[in-house]
Amino acid sequence: MTPQQFVAKWRKVSLTERSACQQHFLDLCDLLDQPKPAAADPDGAWYTFERGARKAGGGHGWADVWKGNHFGWEYKSRTMSSLRLQPVRFLRPNFP
Predict the structure, then answer these.
(1) Are 1 and 30 a contacting pair, CB within 8 Å?
(2) CA-based angle 8:14:18, to the nearest 5?
(3) 14-23, 24-33, 63-72, 87-96 — most confident range
(4) Which of 19, 32, 70, 88 is deepest in the core (most CB within 10 A)?
C-alpha cells in the first residue's frame, strides 16, 4: 500500500474506532512493510489485538494492539475521521 492509497482510503472512512481500528492497523502494517499480528504470532502470545495488560503507571487496561516488549497501542476516537493514537506502555499481559 502506498502512502497515497492509505490516505485516500482512510480520509473518507467514518466508521467508529471499534469498527475500524484493526483494519487501520493492518493497513499501517502494509504501508510500513511490517508483519501483521496473526502472521508474526499465530498464537497471540506476544503480538495481538485486544490484550489486557498491566500499565506501567499502575492499574490495568486494554491495548487495541499489543506487541510484548515493544508497545501497547490504544486508538482514541469516536470515529476514524477524528483519530488520534495513544501509545500506552504496558509491562506485561494480564492472563486469565
Answers:
(1) yes
(2) 115
(3) 24-33
(4) 88
